[in-house]
Amino acid sequence: MKERKGIAVLASGRGSNFESLARACLDEDYPAAVRVLIVDSVEAGAISVADSFGIEYAVVDCGPKKGSMTPESSERMAKLCADRGVALVCLAGFMRIVKGAIMDEYRGRILNIHPALLPGFKGLHAQEQALAYGVRYSGCTVHFVDEGVDTGPIVIQRVVPVLDEDTVESLSDRILHEEHRAYPEAVKLWAEGRLRIDGRRVHIREGA
Ligand code: GRF
Questions:
Q1: Is residue 179 lining ligand 1, measured as CB closer than 6 Å?
Q2: What does residue 8 show for φ and ψ, rounded to 5 degrees?
Q3: What is the pLDDT of residues 36-58, one digit of tens each?
């Protein structure tokens, strides 16, 4: 069997995308394995997901500034990842801008999932933004992380309709369902070496 690529998942919240990745990794033919979950709060629901899958987790205090991380916390994360042979970092509802040592170490090897069709509705409350704007379709985007907020090259997008009767909750649920399919798919493509970043574009090589 081929060696599986180690991934780290960074999360701040309930961890349903982390769970979708952990579940995909249960398949022994899946080309990646979660080595560690890193959360920025002991309150993160993702911790109990890690426990239920028997995945190691670490709580890293990223400092008091919302949306940001201290240089020390970034160094700690980079070391946690390096020590566990992590090849790819997956942000899954991680509510801080990634910068510092972990960015330097993993540049071009960090993915994020966003609950809208980028470049529309970046940042917080994307589903609410989409609903308020009146778009007929929304969805989710898996993209590489660069220095900006939700601006890196796009790997996969999945589209869902916005219905007249939608609330933020119903639209979010429909999008989340697609997120749980898109993220494991994107990680698989990366782990199989099938993604090539070419400026803003990501080329996907055909599978064998
Ligand atoms: C997801 O909607 C994800 O797209 C966004 O934050 C949410 C995290 O949800 N970045 P969960 O913690 O993975 O359930």
A1: yes
A2: -115, 140
A3: 999 999 999 999 999 999 999 99
Query: Whole-angstrom Cα distance, residue 208 to residue 205?
Result: 9
Is the pTM value of this prediction over 0.85? yes
Q: Assign 1 a pLDDT band (cuts: 50, 70, 90).
A: low
Q: Which residue in 153, 110, 12 sits closest to 69, CA to CA? A: 12
**For residue 16, which atom of ligand 1 is closest to its CA?**
14
Torsion, Cα 79 70 123 165, to 10 degrees, reads 80
Question: Catalytic residue positions?
Answer: 114
DSSP string, 20-64: HHHHHTTSTTSSEEEEEEEES-TT-THHHHHHHHT--EEE----S
Q: State mean pLDDT over 172-201.
A: 98
Residue with CA nearest ligand 1 atom 6: 93
Give the amino acid at 38.
I
44 CB near ligand 1 (under 6 Å): no
